[in-house]
Amino acid sequence: MRTDSRLVQMFVAVADTLSFTRGAESLHVAQPWLSAQIRKLEAQLGFDLFVRDSRRVALTEQGAALRDPARAVMRSLDEFGACASMLRIHKERPLLRIGLPPYSHLFARRVALLERFAQLQPKIQIEIALGWSPDLVERVAAGSLDLAFTVGEVIDPALDYQLISHTPCHLCCRSDDPLAARDVVRSSDLRGRTILTFERGLNPSMHEQLFGAAQRAGALLQVDHEMMSDLWLQHILAGDVVGLNFIRKPPLQLRERLCMRPFADAADIALRLARRRGVQQPATERCWQLALGAAAPGNPVPSKN
Question: What is the pLDDT of residue 298?
Fold first, then answer.
């Protein structure tokens, strides 16, 4: 037997208030009409749901047994309505979920690409998730993200990648540091020196790219949770430490006090865009195609025309 969900809603309204008057008020219907509908439901079920007398309304044994299942039906209907509303919104304005490393705003090509995409596709809603590259790759593979920008050699065979840009590594030190006098700094020059690093577990492959050769040459690694921020630059200025940097340019007010020198023993750091293999939703494909046009070094982000 199938029961009209509207009748179930009426039963719940009366069962929760134990009053036909208050139940009718909550549903914005007339009390006599509500009483008639409950009688209709009871006739369909074959038993009474309420004990009615002049002083009170109470649930029968059968009514009490049905109250929680009826509430569950109403919760399911609410979830159905919420899901339908969300799907309607997404149909009208599709959602694109993109993962970004926390420092990716320093990559000019990444910033320009997403800004241009937002201009070209104003009806697509962009949802941003921040995280380190290994975590973002896992989330793309699992389907909780549509795309992710990754830094370093974080490769998953289940994903497609395209190169957005790559940048060489530089050593950042104080202008009065002996290393500032060198045209190029090598790992052997860093023996016994302290290098500020991020925690290896956050991105093991990039950690190896940046710091592996220097550590094997005898450099000391010191974790700094402010990597490549203004505070990181202040830490370099304040002590006998150096940093390895691939995107951070010192602000103008610090450039006389800081020096950047090419670091010979670290591979260029790559910024890539990753997606799952296979058929893509239209919003993902549009962003991917825009990135393809901007991927080659020296190419501008495509204009609307």
Answer: 46
